[in-house]
Specification:
This is PINc/VapC family ATPase. Keywords: RNA-binding. GO terms for molecular function: RNA binding. This protein is α/β, with parallel strands linked by helices. The chain contains 18 helices and 32 strands. The strands form six sheets. A ten-stranded mixed β-sheet has the order 15-14-16-17-13-18-19-20-21-22, with helices on both faces. The chain has a seven-stranded antiparallel β-sheet with strand order 8-7-6-12-11-10-9, covered by helices on one side. Strands 3-2-1-4-5 form a five-stranded parallel β-sheet, with helices on both faces. β6 and β7 form a beta hairpin. The longest helix is centred in the N-terminal third of the chain and has 18 residues.
């Protein structure tokens, strides 16, 4: 008897099982000639090189067959040619399977497979087929479950390292060793293989992500990530299990939030630092909405929320959450939980679904409640933000620490007085009291977020509006003055500007026309004086050099923030700002405030050459002053 096995039956170890007469295999190959195609070897080798357990399992089976041949229980041979690069590239389309079937036909051998599709195709082509069902095992518990107790949230295992765990309540989590001896590579490999096999075979288990060097699997209540070299510097396993299940009634503002969610479909951001309890709160909201007979779905990559079977959990469709969103619009949920909203694409998908009328609840990493909302700036049109997100819930140590109500109103921003400065303003108000805490609006073509009551405020502390006003006044005066400019606010609608003696007439202009135009543009009364009259500087800095009284603060030679190197092109001065995409930042030269701007998606700020801002920036570059970026 001559048999030709395909890759599936070799990986599953069923060829040796048939030789050794295991009870669950209905055929026997003892004494047969086993012809292993080189295409099978090539595919197993490629999978093993990619760090896939299936490749290693298949190679282990080939070694078992070699041992059986050495014991003269079978004859073993390798036949055919290795597939070329084109054939390997089309393996998913069946090219390798076709090569193996052709070999079986050429050798007039029995084609052996554990793949029901391949068995049907081979029979249709007239081959003699032996179909051996895949091995089934009763999956009980995993060995790594022994590391968990009732207070353990996550277990962290790595080669040559002692097992560690995070244990305790959310507000007092401890990262501690849970064993004395480091784990060997063999032990780690065994743990990893058991996890993957268990996820494939257990009810409620599946492989969420499989990439070279990384697998993420769900095994019942456990979310397990397995990293292997070269992606990581050793085998690493991180297993997470929820230790707390809460109801929405367990949180502060529960009744108000329930009423709000029940009024109509809402746009909610659940924010907080990693490990603060955001997902636990999102799960409580999902269960509440489901109990209130809302159709609830989730969008997750990887799927991590612990919700009941009545709530369907979706992941990326075709590698894109946008396609998942299109599919969900056909499903017509009342609410969708989006965990987690991080990248620009995620925010765009969140906004599209919200504007389509779906209630959206997004989970966002943020260290302050306002930061969650600011992450929408630059990604969603400013005027649409209240339609996309009307509620921000900030979670800290497992508790609801802050809730914001987000609305829009056409008004004069706080701290400005002229009626012609009225514009759409996003009001971010404390949920319970209704008192506004922040305003977001466009000022001089830039999006600004202004705190109405600085948390660190006190006597002598400038508010956000004060800093903004000083910066704008300084920019306007510097566009006409040649020397050093210092701005001091004397009220909500008054300021004193100190300039060099030679600049007095230039700043005021003929008949006061120039300073009047500036006052009209800014909506503020400006008194122009010389530096000798400045009580804050003692008359210094009249030579035009930068002093400590410059708006924005910072001592000369000791700039705050991160230093950057602008690039001057034919049309723009480009300021690179890596890592702050969509955020509002201040640009300073030598510690002196220049302007405030929102960073583009490409991680830069472009200032048109010829503008007053660009000239100031170029002058600072010529003076070799350090240009720094400071988050607003």
């Amino acid at each position: 008897m001559n048999v030709v096995p395909d890759t599936s039956v070799v990986i599953d170890g069923r060829v040796s099982a048939a030789i050794e007469g295991e009870e669950d295999v209905e055929v026997t190959f003892e004494g047969a000639t086993v012809s292993v195609p080189e295409a099978v070897v090539a595919e197993l080798e490629a999978q093993a090189n990619d760090g896939l357990e299936s490749g290693w399992d298949g190679l282990s089976e080939l070694q078992t067959l070699a041992d059986l041949a050495e014991g003269r229980r079978i004859d073993l041979e390798y036949v055919g040619d290795r597939p070329d690069a084109i054939e390997r590239g089309h393996a998913a389309e069946g090219e390798i399977d076709a090569l193996i079937r052709d070999l079986a036909e050429e050798l007039k051998a029995t084609f052996v497979t554990s793949d029901i599709v391949q068995a049907e195709v081979a029979e249709a082509k007239g081959l003699e087929v032996a179909y051996i069902s895949p091995k089934s095992r009763e999956v009980g518990t995993l060995a790594l479950e022994e590391f968990f107790d009732d207070e353990t949230m996550s277990v962290h295992l790595k080669t040559d390292t002692r097992p560690m765990a995070k244990r305790g309540a959310l507000d007092e989590m401890r990262y501690e060793a849970i064993a004395d001896d480091p784990l060997s590579e063999e032990e780690m490999d065994e743990y990893a293989r058991e996890v993957v096999d268990g996820a494939k075979e257990a009810s409620g288990g599946f492989v969420e992500l499989s990439e070279p060097g990384m697998k993420i699997v769900q095994f019942r209540d456990y979310r397990i990530a397995i990293a292997r070299p070269p992606f990581s510097d050793g085998i690493e396993i991180t297993a997470v299990k929820p230790i707390a299940q809460t109801d929405i009634e367990d949180y502060e503002h529960a009744e108000e939030l329930k009423d709000r969610l029940g009024e109509h479909q809402r746009g909610v951001l659940i924010s907080g630092a990693p490990g603060a309890g955001k997902s636990t709160f999102a799960q409580a909201v999902a269960r509440y909405l489901n109990d209130e007979e809302y159709a609830v779905k989730t969008m997750e990559k990887p799927r991590d929320l612990q919700v009941g079977p009545e709530i369907t959990q979706y992941t990326e469709l075709g590698g894109e959450m946008a396609k998942t969103a299109d599919a969900l619009l056909m499903v017509r949920p009342d609410y969708t939980i989006y965990d987690e909203v991080r990248k620009t694409d995620d925010f765009e998908v969140f906004a599209d679904m919200r504007l389509a009328g779906v209630g959206m609840i997004g989970v966002v990493h943020a260290t302050r409640a306002i930061d969650a909302l600011q992450r929408l700036v630059g990604r969603v049109e400013l005027g649409m933000i209240p339609q996309v997100v009307d509620t921000v819930v900030y979670i800290e140590a497992g508790e609801v620490a802050k809730v914001y109500d987000v609305t829009t109103e056409v008004k004069v921003p706080a701290g400005l007085t002229e009626e012609d400065l009225a514009r759409p303003v996003i009001l971010v108000s404390e949920f319970e009291s209704g008192e506004p805490e922040y305003e977001i609006y466009t000022f001089n073509r830039q999006v600004v977020t202004v705190p109405l009551d600085d948390e660190d405020g006190g006597p002598g502390t400038e508010s956000g509006v004060d800093r903004l006003a000083k910066g704008e006044i300084e920019r306007e005066i510097r566009s006409v003055a040649r020397g050093y400019v210092d701005v001091q606010l004397s009220g909500q609608d008054r300021a004193v500007v100190y300039v060099d003696d030679d600049d007095i007439s230039t700043v005021i202009g003929k008949g006061g026309g120039r300073i009047t135009d500036i006052e009209n543009r800014l909506g503020i009364d400006i008194d122009v004086r010389t530096h000798d009259e400045n009580p804050h500087s003692g008359g210094a800095a009249s030579d035009g050099s930068s002093g400590s009284g410059a708006a924005g603060g910072g001592s000369a030679g000791q700039p705050e923030g991160r230093i950057t190197t602008p690039e001057i092109t034919s049309r723009h001065v480009v300021v690179p700002v890596e890592g702050n995409q969509g955020e509002t930042v201040e640009i300073r030269a030598g510690g002196d405030y220049l302007f405030t701007a929102t960073v583009s998606r490409g991680g830069e700020i472009q200032v048109s050459r010829g503008s007053a801002i660009a000239e100031e920036l170029e002058d600072a570059i010529d003076r070799q002053e350090p240009i720094t970026v400071v988050p607003s």
